[in-house]
Design a protein that fits this description.
- This protein is of the alpha/beta class.
- The protein has 8 helices and 10 strands.
- An 8-stranded mixed β-sheet has the order 3-2-1-4-5-7-6-8. It has a two-stranded antiparallel sheet with strand order 9-10.
- The two termini are 22 Å apart.
């Protein structure tokens, strides 16, 4: 699995003002987002789920090779299997960079295709799981294609989850909005909506993007 901008954005942006004790990353990939949250927060319990065996092994290796390995744990399981094994577990922060291609696309790499196609983690399943697993004052944070924003908000509402923060992301000032960063809570709160532009030109990053992510890049 490659480290992508989506994961970096979510790991740096996910709200932690409520000081989460327990964190769950659904669909860990390389473990990037969980690792970023271990760096950003004092959360004592940071767990991740990954269904792909190669990605799971990579996540475990990455977790072990960090200063925070005593706070990190990855389950090799589907979301359904994970839910079946839980005993009234709750999380103060749930994050996910879910697969988003609904069409049957192929890159020639089976693992990469599975990670990018939402058949392996439907938005409906993610919303339902968050509705069950999120603690009373918990936060669900996701990154999605902008075109899926309204649909996911509707799905979340079916599980009594309400958006309180939305950041819409453009690659450059002239490009279309490509991604939405969304944060949800169980209690309706005033909705804050803003925007973020990543680059002014190729590899010329905006000050806003640098401010958000500078703690996670070398020589940035």
């Amino acid at each position: 699995m490659k480290v992508g901008t989506d994961g970096v954005l979510l790991g740096a942006w996910a709200p932690i003002d409520h000081r989460p004790f327990s964190v769950l990353d659904i669909g860990a990939g390389t473990g990037l987002i969980a690792l970023m949250l271990a760096q950003r927060s004092q959360a004592e319990q940071i767990e991740a789920i990954e269904i792909d065996p190669d990605a799971f092994e990579q996540t475990v290796e990455n977790f072990e090779n960090t200063p925070w390995n005593d706070r990190l744990f990855c389950f090799h399981a589907s979301l359904d299997d994970f839910m079946e094994d839980l005993q009234d577990e709750e999380y103060d922060l749930i994050v996910s960079n879910p697969p988003f291609y609904s069409e049957n696309v192929t890159s020639g790499n089976e693992s990469r295709d599975r990670a990018r196609q939402n058949e392996s983690l439907p938005f409906e399943d993610l919303g339902e799981a968050a509705g069950i697993l999120l603690s009373e004052n918990g936060v669900l944070a996701v990154i999605l294609p902008f075109k899926e924003e309204a649909r996911f908000i509707q799905i979340a509402a079916e599980h009594t989850l309400f958006p309180f923060k939305i950041t819409r992301v453009q690659g450059s000032p002239k490009s279309e909005i490509k991604r939405s960063l969304l944060a949800f809570s169980r209690t309706p709160l005033p909705l804050e909506i803003d925007s973020l532009i990543i680059e002014t030109e190729r590899h010329q990053y905006t000050e806003a993007y640098r401010a958000l992510t500078h703690d996670f890049y070398l020589n940035f």
